[in-house]
Amino acid sequence: MKPKISIRKCSVHELKMLGDFWTLEIIQALADGEKRFCELERLLLGINPTTLTNRLKKLTAQRVIERQKETVDKISVVYMLTRKGRGVLPVLEQMKIFAETYL
User: Fold this and answer.
1) Block mean pLDDT (10 aa), the chain, length 103
2) Does the CA dihedral 79-80-82-88 come out positive or negative?
3) Domains delineated in the chain
4) Full-model pTM
């Protein structure tokens, strides 16, 4: 049996990461696979391109998403969830269930 982990074990940094609205939206948008910047812009209605750029940089630095250059006909960049990023998805699902039940 796994020992219980206290909420105190969660770093303030990690909790702040999850508390950002656009961050959660980006993670959710990448849940079903890699996306280009323009695809994320279309999915995240109302996000400012500068905000999206800043969040993508932050999530890349935190190793929640990965940025890869892709060469097909031309060089483009795609973003995808890392293992750490995929680990957030069950948390998002539980938050959704909580909201649907109580809010």
Assistant:
1) 58 65 92 95 95 95 92 84 94 88 87
2) positive
3) 11-102 (1.10.10.10)
4) 0.80
